Amino acid sequence: MADLSVTLAGIRSPNPFWLASAPPTNTGGQIELAFDLGWAGAVWKTLGHETDQIVNVSSRLAAIRGAAGRVAGINNIELISDRPLAENLSEIEAVKRRYPEHVVIASIMTGERRQWEELIRQCEEAGVDGFELNFGCPHGMCERGMGSAVGQDVAAIETITRWAKEATRRPVLVKLTPNITDILEPARAAARAGADGLALINTIKSLMGVDVDRFVPYPTVAGRSSHGGYAGVAVKPVALQMVASIARDPQITIPISGIGGITNWRDCAEFMLLGATTIQVCTGVMFGGYRIVRDMRDGLTDWMDENGFDSCSAFIGKAIPNFVEWNDLDLNYKVIAHIDEEKCIGCQLCYPTCRDGGHQAIKLPEGADGGHSVRLQGVAHRRPVVDEEACVGCNLCSLVCPVPECITMVPVDTGRAPETWGERCPQPAE
Ligand SMILES: Cc1cc2nc3c(=O)[nH]c(=O)nc-3n(C[C@H](O)[C@H](O)[C@H](O)COP(=O)(O)O)c2cc1C
What we know:
It is a single chain. This protein has an 8-stranded parallel β-barrel, surrounded by 7 helices. The protein has a 4-stranded antiparallel beta sheet with strand order 5-6-14-11, with no helix packed on it. By secondary structure, the protein is an alpha/beta fold. It is built from 13 helices and 22 strands. Helix 3 packs across helix 5 and helix 8 (265-273) crosses helix 10. The protein has 2 domains: 6-322, Aldolase class I (TIM Barrel), CATH 3.20.20.70; 326-412, 2-Layer Sandwich (Alpha-Beta Plaits). Helices cover 29% and strands 21% of the residues.
């Protein structure tokens, strides 16, 4: 059976599944339960220096829902740990004593150099395996010059990462904020300063919605609100792009812990194929409980066995060579939509989407049906057909179609050799 163990920045982990710094890692008791259920690592809810005053508000979360009312994303206005530092440290010590093979990372955030050094020393004495510098939270702490205020300032990233590296010999990961223009800038700054690894993404600055009867944004605190940090399934595409961009950057050679919208084994495989060595989960556990790790473990193991991967290192980063610049895509490759007559239920959802938002390639044959009708709940419906000349292969109809495998995209022979934009319009040498 496939071996799930991984090593990130010298930290050995029995499997790649870690809990992200957040409510699921708030206390030692929670983390012990999570370890019993199969999580290999936990990044402790961010700790501040004992002099940092942390006061939370109520309420703290709001959600956006997708089809069938399922939560697609949440935003939160929670701060870092508001529990006494001494309590957290003694729980870290107890967890590490009981679970020496599991990974406990201290997520930390504070202000002055002396405070960073003291906090690092205290966590080290409690027995943590490494550190994660929280340069990411986009609410509450950044107004005090911490969190994303650091993550958006390349010089500050370098300075604080160097402070941390000088203060400890244990691995230091830098957790990045996605609230920037180009993720490579902060990632390279952390790498330059000697970080042993990167963790991303933290939450995306957001405003979830407005109570239209009371005229207050969500989540509401005594009739007011504030912007928060967006997380959950909806942020996964943002996270994947950032992880992959860092993973393929020749200037960055340190490992990555991938975070953002992960809920199942397939998400884990995708992050790892794009370069993550471990993955971290917050919202997925907040909504599904620690038990979701069973699906991750069983699913990833089965997938590895089916694909002949006996270790995680055999597939980490395997999709990176196929993640290229747009200029390197083949302009002469073409697919067109194909509607399976046996599967089509005549719902016609593809027709207005292609007409109004696509390229007018799906037609509804007029008049006598000529074989182009299908019975849906006893009523005859015209079945759409594809005008192959007009179809550009955008995928829209196959995304809209409610029947699995009914509309598929089929490659056609264009008779032209592969050619990229870079080849067609070469840029003059500088
Ligand atoms: C309620 C809440 C509290 C969080 N607190 C922290 C924190 O203290 N430190 C931190 O680094 N990230 C914190 N995060 C961010 C998560 O660790 C994670 O980066 C983010 O939620 C994206 O992952 P997800 O989509 O799995 O939730 C928090 C997220 C949520 C939803």
